Amino acid sequence: MKKAFCLFLLFLVCRSVQLLYAGTYTVDNLPMVYLQDKTKHVVNPDGILSAQAVQQMDSLLYRLETEKGVQSVVAVVERIEGGECYDFAITLGNKLGVGNRQNTGLIILLSTQDRCYQILTGEGLEGTLPDAICRRIENRRMVPYLKTGDWDTAMLQTVTAVCGVIHGDDSLLHDGSGQPTGTKGYGLMWLALAIVTGGFLISIYSNRKRNTCPRCGHSPMHRTNSQVRVDRFQGIEHHTVYYRCPKCGHTVSRSHDEPFDNGTGFGGFPPVAGPFHRGFGGGGFGGGFSGGSFGGGSFGGGGAGGKF
Predict the structure, then answer these.
(1) What angle do CA 282, 159, 55 make, to 5 degrees?
(2) pLDDT tens digits, residue range 212-245?
(3) Among 2, 26, 44, 86, which one is most buried in terms of CB atoms within 10 A?
(4) Is residue 72 situated within a structural domain?
(5) SS3 string of the chain?
(6) Does residue 275 have a cis bond before it (omega within 30 degrees)?
(7) Is the dihedral angle over the CA atoms 145, 43, 131, 69 positive or is it negative?
(8) In angstroms, rounded to a whole number, what is the distance separating the alpha carbons of residues 133 and 208?
């Protein structure tokens, strides 16, 4: 009787462990939907994210790859092997080779039961997305929603902010070959230098001319006042600056527009309201797309992550 009870107890323990780790993903069994369809970058095997959220993030990340050459994987699961998002993400990225020869790969990982998250950037992307920016995005866009279990908004906010920063880096220009453009020889370098120098000289001349009184020709005029009007719907700040000529007293005003910083630190990109928000380009993608392939990128540990 005692032996039978011990066997039954052992069975219960083994069954509990089996159930506990039944949904635990490893870098080998995590399904890579991108390999079957190059427009699909979001891995959501446990159904944690809504279909609308997945569709929108796929749209953003597909545009990111086609326009900037940045390959990405966004994975949201319940549990991962080891329970540490950083270790899992860097092993996954290096094993799959997410990115390309310029190492501009991107991985965003969330494990809800392990309560960890990670933004991981390839070495070629660290200049565009330094650790401090990744941390700021997580603290402002991700963690507040993770703490309330709003997985959709947390991931949409994060992906939208990351895409916004990368799209703002003109050094990551896509040439249609699947790779970001690099230096095209010394001819382009001298051309760029000539453009910068010419622009600088024109700017000096233009500023001097703009700061000359149109009535008497005196220079410089003195700034006396300024006003800012915010258009939150358009995400624009309308600036008006007033100048007065100290010689003849003539006044002029000059206006210009700037992107509105809504407190997120990312200029004119509005916060995501929820899974139905439309970001860059919006929309999903129909059938007929072939599978993608990773370009041999590697990761050195750039990015940020933590627990919630």
Answers:
(1) 40
(2) 888 888 877 777 776 767 766 666 667 787 778 8
(3) 44
(4) yes
(5) CHHHHHHHHHHHHHHHHHHHHCCEECCCCCCCHHHCCCCCCEECCCCCCCHHHHHHHHHHHHHHHHHHCCCEEEEEECEECCCCHHHHHHHHHHHHCCCCCCCCCEEEEEECCCCEEEEEECHHHCCCCCHHHHHHHHHHHHHHHHCCCCHHHHHHHHHHHHHHHHHCCCCCCECCCCCECCCCCHHHHHHHHHHHHHHHHHHHHHHHHHCCCCCCCCCCCEEEEEEEEEECCCCEEEEEEEEECCCCCCEEEEEEEEECCCCCCCCCCCCCCCCCCCCCCCCCCCCCCCCCCCCCCCCCCEEEEEEC
(6) no
(7) negative
(8) 36
Tell me the average pLDDT of the chain.
Answer: 80
What range does the domain containing 239 cover? 218-257
The tokens describing 116, both together, are 């960890």
For residue 106, being part of any structural domain is answered with: yes
Is pLDDT of 181 > 70? no
My answer on whether 107 and 231 are in the same domain is: no
Backbone angles phi, psi at 152, to 5 degrees: -55, -55
Q: How far apart are CA 96 and CA 109, in angstroms?
A: 15
Report whether pLDDT(123) > 70. Answer: yes
Higher pLDDT, 259 or 17: 259
**Domain check: are 77 and 155 in the same one?**
yes
179 and 102 Cβ atoms separated by less than 8 Å: yes
The CATH number of whichever domain residue 80 belongs to comes to: 3.10.310.50
pLDDT tens string 70-114: 999 999 999 999 999 999 999 999 999 999 889 999 999 999 999
Please state the domain count of the chain: 2
Q: Answer for the pair 41, 34: CB distance below 8 angstroms, yes or no.
A: yes
CA 152 to chain centre: 16
